[in-house]
Write a structure and sequence with these properties.
The protein is of the alpha/beta class. It contains 7 helices and 7 strands. α2 runs parallel beside α7 (181-191). 45% of the residues are buried.
């Protein structure tokens, strides 16, 4: 059985502008951007906070003090996914677009369901996905680059909207995101960019 998105309920929003007419920054969601102009890499969690639990923490750990970081985080006490999940190919929040416009490499962190520790890699930057896959495998972290439901190759997918038109997305299972092994995963991904 393939892992699935964290919550099968989908919002009907097709843009950040539409979402922001119904949801309030500082109450329902928050945006955090850390710019490191010397870095060509942006690590983003467009479904952070309570939307896809654990993705913000993993993105922060990957970025550390080295890479650009963007987080869109759900703040609601419940129902974050249903209220705030903006599908990746509709994700057009202006601060995110401004950040990744200057970053040739975009790595998007997402969450999917799954009881096994597994990472599903997608995106249009196949060479980087393969390199990350090898690094994860060397660290005994199960992963796939093909044959899963999240290929991430849509050109408008947020991971592919940097200046090169190709990025990588990591769909990380619930079991892995909520375990101490998530920090090890973050370290592997961070070090693979040396």
């Amino acid at each position: 059985m393939h892992p699935t998105r964290v919550n099968p309920i989908r919002t009907s929003y097709t843009s950040f502008a539409e979402l922001s007419t119904h949801q309030v920054r500082g109450r329902d969601f928050e945006i955090d951007v850390i710019r490191r102009p010397e870095s060509a890499i942006a690590v983003i969690a467009p479904h952070g906070g309570g939307i896809e639990n654990g993705t913000s923490e993993i993105a922060r750990a990957i970025a550390a003090d080295r890479f650009n970081l963007y987080l869109f985080e759900g703040l609601k006490s419940s129902g974050n996914y249903a209220a705030l999940h903006l599908t990746s190919h509709f994700f057009d929040e202006p601060e995110c677009l401004a950040l990744i416009a200057k970053c040739p490499v975009v790595v998007a962190i997402h969450g999917c369901r799954g009881v096994e520790h597994e990472v599903l890699l997608g995106g249009r930057h196949r060479q980087l996905a393969d390199r990350l896959s090898e690094a994860l495998r060397a660290a005994n972290i199960t992963n796939k680059t093909d044959g899963h439901p999240f290929p991430g190759v849509e050109p408008r997918n947020i991971c592919n909207r940097g200046p090169t038109g190709r990025g990588v997305q990591l769909e990380i299972t619930t079991a892995l995101r909520t375990s101490p092994a998530a920090l090890g995963l973050a370290a592997v991904v961070r070090e693979a960019h040396r």
